[in-house]
């Protein structure tokens, strides 16, 4: 029984620190550096290298994948990011990424629109999207 409990706790810990995959539509041939992805999700980059306007898709604050993405890619906590966007919205200088509630919704939006970019848990990736970076 002790072994089973330890195994379940360990499995939960591994899932909490799962990799995050940044994804785009398979037809998107733009170049992506980690810094470009950060600029897109902080509103500083408005278009892909192919010239198309970028539509970033995020997941709700507090989800494990969002927390991982914010930490690994944006180097910000959820609270810091909320304050950052509040300031930009108030001054009229930015609009935060569209927010959806889970990996499935992100996958659906990315697969349907070549101008979108988003992130999901790496284990959720399907062949309907293209992984451009994994963190």
Give a concise summary.
With 135 residues, the protein is an alpha/beta fold.
Detail the topology: elements first, then pairings.
Layout: H1 2-16, E1 20-24, H2 34-41, E2 55-59, H3 64-74, H4 78-91, E3 98-100, H5 103-112, E4 116-121, E5 130-134
Parallel strand pairs: 2-3, 2-4
Antiparallel strand pairs: 1-4, 1-5
Overview of this structure, please?
- With 135 residues, the chain is of the alpha/beta class.
- The chain has a single domain, classed as D-Maltodextrin-Binding Protein, domain 2.
- Helix content is 43%, strand content 18%.
- The protein contains five helices and five strands.
- The protein has a five-stranded mixed sheet with strand order 3-2-4-1-5, sandwiched between helices.
- The radius of gyration is 16 Å and the shape is globular.
- The termini are far apart.
Keywords:
single chain; about 140 residues; alpha/beta; D-Maltodextrin-Binding Protein, domain 2; 5-stranded mixed β-sheet; 5 helices; globular; disordered N terminus
Q: What is the residue-averaged pLDDT?
A: 89
Q: Which bin fits the share of residues in helices? A: 40-55%
State the fourth-level CATH superfamily.
Periplasmic binding protein-like II
Taken from the alpha-carbon principal axes, the silhouette is: globular
What is the helix/strand order?
A: HEHEHHEHEE
Strand content: 15-25%
**Sheet with most strands: strand arrangement:** 3-2-4-1-5
Number of DSSP E strands: 5
What is the CATH C-level name?
Answer: Alpha Beta
Q: Total helix count?
A: 5
Whole-number count of domains: 1
Write down the Rg: 16 Å
Largest sheet: 5 strands, mixed
Uncertain regions: pLDDT < 50 for 5+ in a row? 2-15
Distance between the termini: 35 Å
Structural class: alpha/beta
CATH fold naming: D-Maltodextrin-Binding Protein, domain 2
